[in-house]
Amino acid sequence: MDLERNSVGIGQRPALILVDMIKGFTSSACPLGTDCPEVVAANAALLEGFRARNLPIFFTTVVYRNPDQASVFRNRIQALNCLTPDSQWVQVDSSLTPREGEALIEKCWASSFFGTDLAVRLQSSGADSLVVTGLTTSGCVRATVVDGLQHNYPVVVPREAVGDRNPQAHEANLHDMHAKYADVIAMQEVLTTIRGL
Length: 197
Prior knowledge:
Helices cover 36% and strands 17% of the residues. It is of the alpha/beta class. The protein has a single domain, classed as Isochorismatase-like (Rossmann fold), CATH 3.40.50.850. The model has no long low-confidence stretch (mean pLDDT 97).
């Protein structure tokens, strides 16, 4: 049974974090990826909404520049070794190309916070809440949501803007995040709130 909880919602200056919306995860041509045009389209709609209100936007990618970075993780999931600086797979999906002033944060582990300067950038941006999207629901999205809460931010996850290779894991993790760490809501609700800011 889930615990009783309150909906915290979106603040007055939310930041959008697009977690690993990179070619290596949005294309089934990569061993790490799966074709998910509906998730890409949802992220494009959210990007448009955040840009229209001049709100903070952060992209993440996974890049391994030397053999020592996340060596245990890469030994466990060896397909990660294709995410090298010269690979097309580390590039943001072409439908979501960052604009000037929108940070692209390199990471080596699941959470967008771990081993990065995301927390400092969020503080500098004046963000008071987070909207977390991307891939995958059961992996890097969940890790980022948990760490977002642990950095004391209200976190919202737009249901249509996250995806996973495993449909059961996707649904289970949406349920779990909503029960404990974030408000999992419809993308349209997020867009309506953003337009009203």
